[in-house]
Amino acid sequence: MAEISAKDVAALRKATGAGMMDCKRALEATGGDFDEAKKWLREKGLAGVDKRRDRAADQGAIDIAVAGSIGAIVELNSETDFVAKGDDFKAAVTTLAGQAASDASDLASQTFAGTGESVDTAVKELAARLGENISLGRVVRLDAGAGLIDTYVHRQDGRGTVGVIVVLSGVDPSNPQAQEIAHDVALHAASAAPGWLRREDVPQSVIDAEREVYENITRNEGKPEAAIPKIVEARLGGFFRDRCLVEQAFVKDTKVSIAQLVKSLGAEATVSAYARVKIGEE
Q: 124: closest CA among 242, 15, 17, 254?
């Protein structure tokens, strides 16, 4: 095997824009022949990938898969919605979601279905083929255990843009009413965009910042100093009701909270977990 120097690898990287390890592999595969290595990278779809990595990838697609009690959301990012709406892109994110639901190991390191290559390499090749900065985004897995799992994907032009997984505990998963309510909660979460499941999940730093804002607002309104703590706590309660899923007013019936809706299934019924991913949001 020809000896591959760091200088040769760097020169090929500069000429093609491919990653360092990909350039090393190309030179090894072609016996150190520079031109053949460039051709090898093009054929593998790896040339030019690194040159696109500094371009914003805030579009893309989301898909969800369920395997037994496991639900998984996978986000695949791209630069434009045009690419994200393409059949190859949508097929890739669907495959990735299925893998994430079936295998708890790091998704990027898994073998991409039917290729023998890692997911990381397959995503790079997709980026080269489609001519955009494409990257694996958020991967979320939830295990419902003995509970009921439900999902919802909001689609635009065939691609998923919002994905939600909801887990209900303390219910019979085979109960049609429980299934209907679980789906209603998933639809609600997609629309209402809660930040947390319950108020206990809100970071103390966020609570402190909100309390400070409400104190300043209340003081600026000229309220009596003695009344400020009570007014602030009331306003903080409104923040929790606006941002915490179980305290939010149900979008289909604003007189009922999500917690009350779920409790209609029984005293032990509760939303034990949820996840929501939207393209372009952190």
A: 17
Sign of CA dihedral 184, 185, 186, 191: positive
CATH label of the domain that carries residue 112:
3.30.479.20
DSSP state of 55: S
CA atoms of 186 and 163, how far apart (whole Å): 9
Range of the domain at 20: 6-48
Average pLDDT over every residue of 224-238: 94
Quote the pLDDT of residue 282: 66
Domain count of the chain? 2
Mean pLDDT computed over 39-63: 68
Give domain status of residue 278, yes or no: no
pLDDT at residue 8 in the model = 84
The answer to whether 155 and 114 have CB atoms below 8 angstroms apart is no
Burial class (CB in 10 A: 0-12, 13-18, 19+), 18: buried
Q: Is 262 exposed, middle or buried, given 0-12, 13-18 or 19+ CB atoms closer than 10 A? A: buried
pTM: 0.78
User: Are 18 and 72 contained in the same domain?
Assistant: no
Q: How far is CA 183 from the centre of its chain?
A: 19
The CB density around residue 275, as the number of other CB atoms within 10 Å, is: 20
How deeply is 104 buried, as exposed, middle or buried, from its count of CB atoms within 10 A (0-12, 13-18, 19+)?
A: exposed
Q: Using an 8 Å Cβ cutoff, are 265 and 175 in contact?
A: yes
> Measured in Å, how far apart are the chain's first and last C-alpha atoms?
46
Beta bridge partners of 139: 74
Residue 262's DSSP bridge partners are none
pLDDT at 1: 53
